[in-house]
Amino acid sequence: MGEVPPHMYASVIRRERFGEPAQAFATEVVATPSPGRGQVLVRVMAAGINYNNVWAALGHPVDVISLRQKQGQPEDFHIGGSEGSGIVWAVGEGVTTVSVGDHVVLAGAQWDETADDIRAGTDHPASKSMRAWGYETNYGTFAQFCLVSDFQCHPKPARLTWAEAASFMLTGPTAYRQLFGWRGNEVRPGDVVLIWGGAGGVGSMAIQMTKAVGAIPIAVASSAQRAEFCRRLGAVGVIDRTEFDHWGRLPDVTDAVAMGEFLQGARKFGKAIWDILGERRFPNVVLEHTGQDTLPTSMYVCDNGGMVVICGGTTGYNGDVDLRHLWMRSKRLQGSHGANLREYREVISLINAGLVQPCLSRCGDFDQIGELHQLMYDNVHPSGNMAVRVGAVDGDGTGRL
Fold this sequence. Notes:
Blueprint (H helix, E strand, L loop, with lengths): L6 E7 L7 H4 E7 L7 E11 L2 H7 L5 H7 L7 E2 L4 E8 L11 E4 L2 E2 L5 H4 L11 E2 L12 E5 L3 E3 L6 H4 L5 H10 L11 E4 L5 H12 L3 E6 L2 H10 L3 E4 L15 H22 L7 E4 L6 H7 L5 E4 L12 H6 L3 E4 L5 H12 L7 E5 L4 H9 L7 E5 L12
Parallel strand pairs: 11-12, 11-14, 12-13, 14-15, 15-16, 17-18
Antiparallel strand pairs: 1-2, 1-4, 3-5, 3-9, 3-18, 5-6, 6-10, 7-8
């Protein structure tokens, strides 16, 4: 315990392998990083799989390796992994919040606590120093050891296996901040919440959290199997998006035919919400991450004074909005990224209380990291969250080595 080997195994992305994830990841031996001031070296037990390292594998929309090298960092490789579970193995100068041997889960948001804007009171995720660890920064959880800031370490829920504990610290806090982090539009008991991709990682967390506070979750899914998964989590109803064909960018308002087709589809979608509720009500909050294809519909069906809150753009980054719906109905379009320290701890409290389950649907081995990202890239991944074992062999549910 605490002896740091000079080298470690890691699942590495390099520029010459950029492309689909199945080919981009390869196991290599690299130097083990050393913790500096305020940093912690963690022996990784398990790592979560998320879409950000699909982007890293593709080298698009950002070549994260070249970007970091332009910032003066020497490594010509990327070790991804933005969440995980493990054992504190070594600590740098000034670390007092964790000790060698602690069992921890790892948060994916990394910032500079000495940054001017944070010192002035800016919320951590909105700081100019905010980075997605394991994507915008190196030495994530796809290796025997990862390097984090001390505040990224949180106590591991004792009831979870290592793999379960590795799978919720990105999707869970992301959904939590979307639902409860925006003053004036926090989800309250009785609110209707529309959740795109309800069977996905963020969606599965959002359904459970919405239900836990007495609100009404309605999910959107793409198959009967995924719809049933959403219902088991607590969705009061599920809309099958494959029954609609009006997706895509918003037509120009001067194109009467195209705009008419969009409105017909959006109204049909809105009626599906009414049919589930049994009354003419619209969502108080729409939880978005799909972006380009769905944002026009989300803004259309959102209730007066309601909020569309978005954390991604998996169908594209050009989000079209009919501004008349935005200002005349006092709606809100809110970007949301990551979570702050308090929000991470509150999600862990929900997990500890059994009110939210991590929804680990598949756990692979270390050499399957590329394969599981490929499933996500091809949109054929199972419902819920995925993880890989790194240093752990789970089986008894206790999270022990």
